[in-house]
Amino acid sequence: MLRAISGVVPSTAEYRFFGVRRRPRSPEQVARLGVAHVPQGRGTFGNLTVEENLLAGATLRRRTPEIAEDIENWMTRFPALRDRRAQPAGSLSGGEQQMLAIARAMMGRPKLLLLDEPSLGLAPRVVTELFDHLKALNETLHVAMLVVEQNARQALRHADRGYVLEQGRIALHDTAAELGGNDAVRAAYLGV
Amino acid sequence: MNAGVPPGRTGTRAVNWSAAVVVLVLALALPALLPAFELSQAGSAVYLALAVLSMNLLTGLNGQLSLGHGAFVGIGAYTVTILVSDHGWSYPTAFVAGALLASAAGVVVALPALRLRGLYVALTTFGIGLVFPTLIQRFSSWTGGTGGKPVTAVYVPPSWLGLDIAQYAYVLSVLVLAVCLLVVHRVKGSRAGRLMQAIRDNDLVAEGFGVVVPRVKVATFALSAALAGLAGGLFALQHRFVSPGDFGLTMSIQLFVGMAIGGSVSVAGAVLGGMFLEYVPEVTERVGVPALYTPVIYGLVLALIVIFAPQGVVGLWHRLFRRRAAEVPAEPRPRTPELAVSTEKGAE
Amino acid sequence: MTLLIQRLFDGLSSGAVYAALALAIVLVFRATGTLNLAQGEMAMFTCFLAWKLADPAHGLGWPVVPAILLAMAVGLAGGAVIERVVVRPVEDRTDHLPIIIVTLGLMLAINALAGALFTTDVVRLPEVFPAGALRLGDVHLSYATIGLLAVLLVVSALIWALFQRTRIGLRMRASVDNPDSARLLGIRRSHMLMLGWGIAGALGALAAVLVAPQTFVHTGMLQGVLLYAFAAATLGGFTSVLGAVVGGLIVGVLQSLAAGYVGFIGNDLSLLVALVIIIAVLMVKPAGLFGRVDSSRL
């Protein structure tokens, strides 16, 4: 579904973004709307260095000093990235690559961040860290986030709202707190 | 165009034998109907068809690629020329020798090709097609070098036939082509043919079923090269002169075009391909396009076929050389979203 | 001994040309994942263009360097257009064969077009480098050779800088590394492809123009060179820019030495050397000297 939004997959959908109807045809166009998509599996540029990955994230921006400043800020927020700034991204651990992918996506200063299964393949402790970071970003940088997650517990713990999809349709939507308390949801997805 | 063979089908359509016989009789009657020049053109179409047939066998049926098949044609042509002119061999034995030599060369090419992926087989055979004329030039004491070599012994027709030399050459060519078409048709429908096509469609699966893939591939290449060598022999028989430039990259690419036109899986399509190669320059020149531009047309045709061809030709190639492992479709189909619905938790 | 050194220098001289064309081949391979068999013919066409501009008798009589630069520019544009119009419709991420067939058709078509539009004769391009040579003992190091190597050095450095130090180079590398991710960041894949082929076209033009003094200008001028360039790219590794340069020089030297010292080969069978190199490398170490083993490509 996320891929349909970002135009990776052809779709006939149109949607409203900040009140304006949009029908972009390609990922490049979607990116220009201020939507950043962190794909499933991270999608880092394995052969490029960490720093180059971040730089690539700023493709749509022009002001070089600001870009450089942003890179430094992200490295501060994720120290592991600073330690490995000149290493090829492929040599990073799963969790580090996820941080990199998020930072890279954020380099474009998007208004909306799409995250596709960010917890996939990550250890539980790392997942907690990840979601804490996401929540922090959401609050401090005011970037909206749409997260597709199988790990419902973590997702609902940090989210504002939740949408349960079945067979391509929205089956349930509510605030995260309500969903977390919903017995059917708990039985089906939270293993309670 | 019999190009639309669905994947996996062994594709022996019911042959309209009566039509085939009619065509054969007509072809054999041409010496009575056509003057010398037109007849020689028809003759060229015949050996080109045979050469295209050899490509159909290799690529269409078995899925192997050869961008340098002109070399095998050349081997056949030069072998016949040399044996007949310099060593007094009879034509039939020289033909056999030419086919065998070409076949041996085919084996030499096929063995390393087993280990290479499609792209690199393309590169290697391309190189072979390019290098072959230089080999001819190098051994000029045998081959006459750049200047070419005339065929000094003539295949004299028996007098009771009432044909002159050129007509005899034509008739023999038609008969050789007809026999080869029959042979390939039989092979296609045989168990060997099914093995070849199974390998074309998915060699890993074929291997799983116990097919000794390398053996079949090399054998197919050998047969294909033999047919090409025969075509070369016919070239020598008809033209009575061979030169290195005749069997270089241009011929190799032309054969590829001929195969693409006629439909690579089709046996009869080879005839179409041969006719296309011979008559299109003729036709376009009549329409006002100078002969110089003919290769442009070939190139365009090739590109157009690859881009727009009916699923048969392009689909065939897609199945030939696509990565076996995970059959990843080019356009991912939209997934039904899973979201928090993990499969083991009883989604409804 | 002096003969050896002489042969070495001659080899480096032709190697520089192979390297330039190999660079073009590598660029296309990195961008599109396949081999452009028409690279030589495209280059030949632009060389004819340069001739048409620079030739005093049959052309416009321009000075030779501007003619070359314009030819390179046309190579750039032409390469981009060909990618967009001819190659793009057949582009397929998993199957690189149809494109190679299309380039085969292109090769045929462009060759004939050049003969028809320009001439089927053999013509000459005015010299770029001054005649004469540097004498180191008995060894002649022609100014042309020095010039060739200098040009190769400069061009290689420029290509390296383009890829490693510019934003657009970064985008191109990202696009090659992970096309989907690059698109999600807003990198226009279409532009990257056209740029790759365009730069390759310009490099090809340069290679053709550099080899023109030896081969003269005619429709078949680069057919042999193409195979050497492919040998260079194979040896160096199809994904490596450095490999193309080093591979080109090695192939040039090997060719020169083989032609000189192995009497059986002489000049006639030099092409065979290229073919043998290709086969040998593909069988033994498909990634070449500097290439990355990418299982989806090899």
Could you explain the architecture of this structure?
The complex is a heterotrimer of chains A (about 190), B (about 350) and C (about 300). Chain A is α/β, with parallel strands linked by helices. Chain A is about 45% helix and about 15% strand. In chain A, strand 4 (about 110-115), helix 7 and strand 5 (about 145-150) form a beta-alpha-beta unit. In chain A, helix 3 (about 50-55) runs parallel beside helix 6 (about 95-105). The model of chain A has no long low-confidence stretch (mean pLDDT about 80). The relative contact order of chain B is 0.19. Chain B has helices at about 15-35, 35-60, 70-85, 90-115, 120-140, 140-145, 165-190, 190-200, 205-210, 215-240, 250-260, 270-285, 295-310, 310-320; strands at about 150, 240. Chain B has 14 helices and 2 strands. With about 350 residues, chain B is an all-alpha fold. Helix content of chain B is about 70%, strand content about 0%. The radius of gyration of chain C is 19 Å and the shape is globular. Chain C has helices at about 1-30, 40-55, 65-85, 95-115, 145-165, 165-175, 180-185, 190-215, 225-235, 240-260, 270-285, and strands spanning about 135, 140. Chain C has a domain at about 20-220. In chain C, helix 9 runs parallel beside helix 11. The longest helix of chain C is centred in the N-terminal third of the chain and has 31 residues, at about 1-30. Chains in contact: A-B, A-C, B-C. The interface of A and C includes residues 27 and 60 of A.
